[in-house]
DNA sequence: TCGGCCTAGAATGCATGCAATTCGTCGAGC
DNA sequence: GCTCGACGAATTGCATGCATTCTAGGCCGA
């Protein structure tokens, strides 16, 4: 249930112990339980995740590739810290990669995949035009938004590209749904949601029309909305710190 | 000596045993000693690489992330097979990513980095205008060509992008220098080299001029040269099989 | 003769022991 | 009082043993 969003993430399923360690470690890192920049001692986390050192080490190797852990020259791992600029770059890179996905999709022409994409866009429309305030509504929006981006990658028919996008999305705040929760309140946020949905629709249209360049530009522009959301989220530092991964980001020239 | 090109590849240096296993396994895979699609039994390769199972397993996890190994659902790893289309996608993706690097570089404006880039272009010019036939000349060209692409990523000032490009380059025939050796002979190949060098120069110019879009388009076009080289290389199947990674590529609808 | 089941072998995944290295701290010397 | 060095604790990296799971081959039956 809780990791429903994880299941399509990794095509390769490691053994259960490693998977458990990866999921638990990710949680510990993103919640800030394991402080950023701090060494992750194997014996210290062995009891936190409930697996032995061997699968734990495998999991840490995996998280190193995901970018959440960094290898220390002298051995062992530390929780990676991210500058705000790195987060911005990750978002921009996601946009660039999704742009490439759009271009590939426009060239490969998978009609059934495009139908599914349109269906998701329609569902999103229904959400946005319905009653605006409801927690289940927002959950549903998050789900559909993620689904749109997954389907976008799928119609690109390029598994390698999907892997790259997954890798980028593993970084803090780089996921397409990273800021949807924070958008619940302000009027500015509502405007952004409306624009985002316009992007969704026009991206799908451009792909179907075979206009890869337009779709690519739109995808990049779409990601720039996340940049604006990031700016807004950083403004309330305390709330930002409570977001998943917020504890990993250094703000104000190296502070935390 | 032989792995000189590897040293700048990975920022993160694993422990010597793991590194040894990774390098040796890569070699075994790319040379086809471990046949594509076949299971890689740990005990079988333990004596081939000279390390124990634990570091070997770490190395295999790493190669899985590189894309050369795939996890089997029932456990263990197999040597990945690549379709020709996947190789083409990898090359195109490298071009797309290098294009993004160009755009970032044009925006970030690192003059000293650009000077280094220009210097490499000048050196490449000198190589191309000198005597055309010499093995050391070709080695030097390969070195400078790789250096150009490394510096290109460096001036983008986006380490994450560098990681993605490294990941793509780890796939067979996706490296910028993958086909330079095969270009020694034909007149067509010489023309491609000339055009490639023109790309190098104009890319550097466009970045310095701050014209990210032009640089991006050129980078993508540059990668398309590799696609042409791939087509040419595939024509001589026997020679292709002897290239590093050639044994991993399935040609003709699943044959080998 | 072919197909399915069962069994023996093998391979993986995991846990833990051991040695080497690193890190922190305390003490001594300047 | 400060710095350098050395010792001890802690941690990593590696190797190997064991249990579980998978695989392959043979045997039996149709």
Which CATH C-level class of the largest domain in chain A is it?
Answer: Mainly Alpha
Please tell me the CATH architecture of the largest domain in chain A by its name. Up-down Bundle
Give the number of domains of chain A: 2
How many extended strands of chain A? 5
Radius of gyration of chain A: 19 Å
Outline of chain A:
globular
Largest sheet of chain A: 3 strands, antiparallel
The proportion of residues forming helix of chain A, as a percent range, comes to 55-70%
What is the N-to-C order of secondary-structure elements of chain A (H for helix, E for strand)? HEHHEEEHHHHHHHE
Q: For the largest interface in this structure, which chains are involved and how many residues does each contribute?
A: A-B, 32 and 32 residues
Per DSSP, the total helix count of chain A is 10
Strand content of chain A: under 5%
**N/C terminus separation of chain A:** 33 Å
Task: Summarize the structure in short.
Chain A is mostly helical and 256 residues long.
